[in-house]
């Protein structure tokens, strides 16, 4: 605006004080270009805290919404405590969702868990069975010993008796007192024989019980082994897969072994949501593979913190 006014006075001055129109015209000063107004640069705003909330949660994960929410808050606090900043904010209305997507990855995990629990049960049952088996075998051995001794004695007495009977039969019959004595002896032998027979049946029942137990144990192991084979056929191959993925506007969680594993997956993906990239220490939350991290007490490593500070600076948050 000021430049325009100065230009007008000069024209008027030329008009009144010059006697030559043409000379006057020569004095006209060319018009300056208009200067564009300066661009006002807006101070770039830090995107934090990032508002997020729980989205889809497939019930096959065996996780309640509250448990999932608590896990998210725990994962969030791992980063926030380390840097003492409010980086993330759980907010039901947030568009940024954490979705739990159930597919073969978690199905495999659950199948493995089931197999592992079954193994534990099988081992316990097998232990009980083997104890019972040993006890039965011991009882059987003792009873068998007694039985065999009885049979041996019986056979000795029987053969003596038979010899006597044969002798008297050869003589054409036994005298009356000898006959009575031998009849009494026979009765006792019959009684003993019956008792032995009862013992024999008892012993066989015990053997049956032992064999049945052995069969049951065999079936138990076979059943478990068949489940192991089924698992191997379905999921046996080694593979790398994503436990979770950050998509820019949402996160998907696919697989976790247990609660502390879930915390790592969430902390890692939330790390990506905070714009962090992978770091190269295998103990770091932001390492691309899970495994070496301290699951019981998950803390960001030096590399994690360096990466976090870097992205916070880049995003004008520090
Ligand atoms: Zn990653």
Tags for this entry?
single chain, rod-shaped, binds zinc ion, Collagenase (Catalytic Domain), 62% helix, 318 residues, 7 helices, Helix Hairpins, 3 domains
Task: Give the arrangement of secondary structure elements.
Layout: H1 2-17, H2 21-26, E1 50-57, H3 65-83, E2 88-90, E3 97-100, H4 104-170, H5 176-235, E4 244-246, E5 250-253, H6 259-273, H7 302-314
Helix pairs in contact: 3-6, 4-5
The site of zinc ion has 4 residues, from helix 6.
In short:
The protein has 318 residues and is α/β, with parallel strands linked by helices.
Q: Which strand order do you get reading across the main beta sheet?
A: 2-1-3-5-4
Beta strand count = 5
CATH top level assignment of the largest domain: Mainly Alpha
Bound molecules: zinc ion
Query: What's the helical proportion of residues?
Result: 55-70%
The helix-strand sequence is: HHEHEEHHEEHH
Beta-strand content estimate: 5-15%
- Cα-to-Cα separation, first versus last residue: 41 Å
Briefly note the structural class of the backbone.
Answer: alpha/beta
Largest sheet composition? 5 strands, mixed
Helix count equals 7
Number of spatially distinct domains: 3
Write the CATH architecture name of the largest domain: Orthogonal Bundle
Q: What is the typical, i.e. mean, pLDDT?
A: 88
Radius of gyration: 48 Å
| CATH topology type of the largest domain | Helix Hairpins
Principal-axis shape equals rod-shaped
Question: Ranges with pLDDT <50 over ≥5 residues?
Answer: 1-24
């Amino acid at each position: 605006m000021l430049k325009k006014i100065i230009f007008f006075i000069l024209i008027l001055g030329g008009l009144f004080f010059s006697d030559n129109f043409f000379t006057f015209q020569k004095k006209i000063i060319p018009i300056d270009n208009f200067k564009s107004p300066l661009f006002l640069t807006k101070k770039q705003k830090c995107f934090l805290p990032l508002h997020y909330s729980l989205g889809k949660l497939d019930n096959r994960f065996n996780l309640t919404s509250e448990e999932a929410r608590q896990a998210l808050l725990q994962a969030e606090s791992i980063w926030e405590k380390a840097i003492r900043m409010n980086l993330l904010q759980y907010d039901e209305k947030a568009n940024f969702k954490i979705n739990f997507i159930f597919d073969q990855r978690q199905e495999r995990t659950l199948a493995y868990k089931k197999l592992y629990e079954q193994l534990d049960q099988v081992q316990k049952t097998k232990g009980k069975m083997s104890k019972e088996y040993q006890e039965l075998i011991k009882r059987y051995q003792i009873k068998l010993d007694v039985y065999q001794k009885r049979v041996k004695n019986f056979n000795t007495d029987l053969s003596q008796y038979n010899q006597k009977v044969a002798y008297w039969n050869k003589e054409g019959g036994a005298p009356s007192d000898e006959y009575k004595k031998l009849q009494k002896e026979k009765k006792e032998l019959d009684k003993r024989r019956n008792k032995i027979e009862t013992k024999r049946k008892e012993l066989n029942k015990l053997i049956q019980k032992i064999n049945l137990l052995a069969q049951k144990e065999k079936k138990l192991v076979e059943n478990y082994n068949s489940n192991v084979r089924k698992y191997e056929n379905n999921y046996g191959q080694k593979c790398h897969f994503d436990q979770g993925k950050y998509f820019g506007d949402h996160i998907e969680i696919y697989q976790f072994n247990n609660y502390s594993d879930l915390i790592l997956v969430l902390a890692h993906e939330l790390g990506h949501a905070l714009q962090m990239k992978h770091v190269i220490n295998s103990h770091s939350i932001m390492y691309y593979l899970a495994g070496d991290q301290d699951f019981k007490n998950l803390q960001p490593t030096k590399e994690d913190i360096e990466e976090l500070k870097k992205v916070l600076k880049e995003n004008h948050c520090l």
